[in-house]
Design a protein that fits this description.
6-stranded mixed β-sheet, alpha/beta, 16 helices
Length: about 500
C-alpha cells in the first residue's frame, strides 16, 4: 500500500502536515523525504515529525522556527502542544533590506462599479449608518434600524441598507485619554467612510463623547447626507425612534437620486486582510492565495491592509525587512514591544494567542500561527504602519496595529478606510462587517462542504491538488472586483455584519 502523502512546506523542515486523518501504524511520507511510520493518531492539518527531535531542539516549519521540543520526539510522532513549546528566542529583524518589484500585468487595467464621492473616495456600498456616540443610545439605534430591515434594498436600487453601529463605550472615560482617542478615531472613521452615503449620529445627550466632538473632527464627504439626534433633547426613546425613522425616510430618495454605480479604477480599492478560526492549512492555502491577490492589487496601485499585531509576533522579521524605510520597520517593532508590555500587564504573554479552535485545527504556538498569518500580505514592500483606526493615506501594502480578536481588528481596518475585506478561516468563523463587504475564504474543502452557506471561496483545493495558489489567488482577486461592484458575499446574503462593530476599548473606565 502506498504511503499517505504529507505536505512538506520547505525542504529542510522538521515536520510535515497531514493532508487527512492518519492512524497509528500507517506509513506516511513527503516528496523527497524518507517515509515514516505514524506512531499515534494525527488529525488532518496537524504536524508529523520527519526526523528525531531531542528535547530542546528548535523545530522548523515554513523554513522558520515554530517552537522547541519539550521532550524527545521520534520520527512519525504527532507534534503538538504535548511536545512542542513556545520559546521566544532571538530573531534578527532587518530593516528595509528587501525590495520586491511587482510588475503591472500587461492586460487592460481592471475596473469595478463603485460609488464615487465628492471628496475623491470611492465606495463599494451605499449604506445609511446610524452611528451611536454612547452605549446609552444603542437600543434606540437598533429600534430605528429594525424599521428598515429589507425595506431600503427592496425600494431603492442604490441603497444597500440601514445599519446600526452600536458599541459599549462613549462615557465613563476621559475623551483625551488613549482609550478615548481610539474610540473617537473609530467613530470618525466610520462617519467618513466611503461606504456610508447617509449618516444619522445618535446620542443620549450627556455622554463624555458628544456628537459635535465626533463630527467636528471627521472628514465627512460633503455629499454625505448627515443628521443628528439626541434622546434627551428629542423627548425620550419613543420620540427619538419616530424622529430617526422619519429622518432616514427623508434620506433614502436623496441617496437614490444622488448616486449610481460608475466605472472606477482598481487602484481605488482598499482591501482589509484578516483571519479568524485559523487551522493548520491557513498558512498553506487561503492565506498565501490571498497574499497573491494582495500583491496583484498593490501592483495596480491599490491598497492592502494587514493587521492583528499579536498574530505577526514571531514573524515580524519577514515584514520589517520589506519596509520601504528603516523608520517604517522600526514603527512595527515598537508596536510589538508595546504589545509585550500590554500582555504582561494582563498576566499573560503573546503566546496565549492561539485559541482552542486554532489548536484543534493543528496550530501549536503563536510563532507557527504568525508565520502562516503574514502570508496574507504577499511579498509587497511595507509602505506604512498605522495606529488602530488611523486613516489610511498611503497606497500599497500597509500594516495597522490591531488586536487579534476578529471583530475588534476588522473594526479598526474598516475605520481606516477599507472598502472590501477578505477574511480567511479554517474553523468556520461566521463573520460580516457592515458597511464593508467581507469575502470569506475557507482554508480546507471539508469546511466548505460543511458550511458552504457561510464561505465564499474554497481554498482547500490547493491541498487536494485541483488548483494552485496562483489560480485561487486570481479567483479571489476576481471576486474582490465583483463584490466591489455589488455582488453579495455570503455574510451579506445572510444579512449579518451589524453586530461586529466592536471598537477597541483601552484604558481606565470610571
Amino acid at each position: 500500500m502506498a504511503a499517505a502523502e504529507l505536505l512538506l512546506l520547505r525542504g529542510d523542515d522538521d515536520v510535515a502536515v497531514a493532508t487527512h486523518d492518519l492512524s497509528s501504524g500507517e506509513e506516511a511520507g513527503a516528496p523527497g523525504r524518507d517515509p515514516v511510520v505514524v506512531r499515534d493518531a494525527v488529525p488532518r492539518g496537524h504536524k508529523v515529525a520527519l526526523r528525531a527531535l531531542p528535547a530542546g531542539t528548535e523545530v522548523r516549519k515554513y523554513g522558520q522556527v515554530i517552537g522547541v521540543a519539550t521532550q524527545d520526539v521520534a520520527p512519525g510522532e504527532h507534534v503538538h502542544s504535548h511536545n512542542l513549546g513556545f520559546e521566544e528566542g532571538h530573531r534578527e529583524s532587518e530593516l528595509a533590506t528587501v525590495h520586491v518589484e511587482l510588475p503591472v500585468p500587461p492586460e487592460p487595467r481592471p475596473t469595478f462599479q463603485g460609488y464615487r464621492r465628492s471628496n475623491g473616495k470611492v465606495g463599494t456600498r451605499n449604506y445609511v449608518a446610524i452611528l451611536t456616540s454612547v452605549n446609552c443610545s444603542a437600543s434606540t439605534a437598533k429600534m430605528i434600524a429594525d424599521q428598515f430591515r429589507g425595506f431600503a434594498t427592496d425600494q431603492y436600487d442604490d441603497v444597500d441598507g440601514v445599519v446600526a453601529l452600536t458599541h459599549q463605550s462613549g462615557c465613563g472615560l476621559v475623551p483625551t485619554s488613549e482609550g478615548g482617542q481610539v474610540l473617537l478615531r473609530t467613530l470618525r472613521g466610520y462617519a467618513e467612510h466611503a461606504n456610508v452615503a447617509g449618516l444619522l449620529v445618535l446620542g443620549l445627550g450627556c455622554e463624555m463623547i458628544q456628537l459635535d466632538t465626533i463630527l467636528s473632527g471627521a472628514a465627512v464627504s460633503p455629499d454625505t447626507v448627515v443628521k443628528t439626534l439626541t434622546i434627551q433633547d428629542t423627548g425620550g426613546i419613543r420620540a427619538t425612534v419616530k424622529a430617526g425613522v422619519a429622518a432616514i425616510r427623508e434620506m433614502l430618495p436623496e441617496i437614490e437620486e444622488r448616486w449610481e454605480r460608475e466605472e472606477c479604477d482598481v487602484a481605488e480599492l482598499v482591501l482589509g486582510l484578516n483571519c479568524g478560526g485559523s487551522d493548520g492549512y491557513s498558512g498553506i492555502t487561503a492565506n498565501p492565495a490571498l497574499g497573491w491577490a494582495s500583491d496583484l492589487l498593490v501592483s495596480y496601485g491599490g491598497t492592502s491592509v494587514l493587521a492583528e499585531t499579536p498574530e505577526v509576533f514571531g514573524a515580524e522579521h519577514l515584514l520589517t525587512r520589506r519596509a520601504v524605510t528603516p523608520e517604517v520597520g522600526k514603527r512595527l517593532l515598537d508596536r510589538i514591544e508595546w504589545w509585550k508590555s500590554y500582555a504582561a500587564a494582563g498576566g499573560g504573554s503573546l503566546d496565549n494567542n492561539p485559541s482552542p479552535g486554532n489548536k484543534a485545527g493543528g496550530l501549536t504556538t503563536i510563532l507557527e500561527k504568525s508565520l502562516g498569518a503574514v502570508a496574507k500580505g504577499g511579498q509587497a514592500d511595507l509602505a506604512a504602519v498605522y495606529e488602530y483606526a488611523e486613516p489610511i493615506t498611503e497606497r500599497g501594502f500597509v500594516f495597522m496595529d490591531t488586536p487579534g480578536y476578529d471583530p475588534v481588528s476588522v473594526t479598526g481596518i474598516v475605520a481606516g478606510g477599507a472598502n472590501v475585506v477578505c477574511f480567511t478561516t479554517g474553523r468556520g468563523s461566521v463573520f460580516g462587517c457592515k458597511p464593508t463587504p467581507s469575502i470569506k475564504l475557507g482554508t480546507n474543502s471539508e469546511l466548505f462542504e460543511k458550511m458552504g452557506d457561510d464561505i465564499d471561496i474554497d481554498c482547500g483545493r490547493i491541498v487536494t491538488g485541483t488548483a494552485t495558489v496562483e489560480q485561487v489567488g486570481r479567483e479571489i482577486f476576481d471576486r474582490i472586483l465583483a463584490v466591489a461592484s455589488g455582488e453579495l458575499t455570503s455574510s451579506e446574503d445572510l444579512d449579518i455584519g451589524g453586530e461586529e462593530f466592536v471598537p477597541w476599548q483601552l484604558g481606565t473606565v470610571t
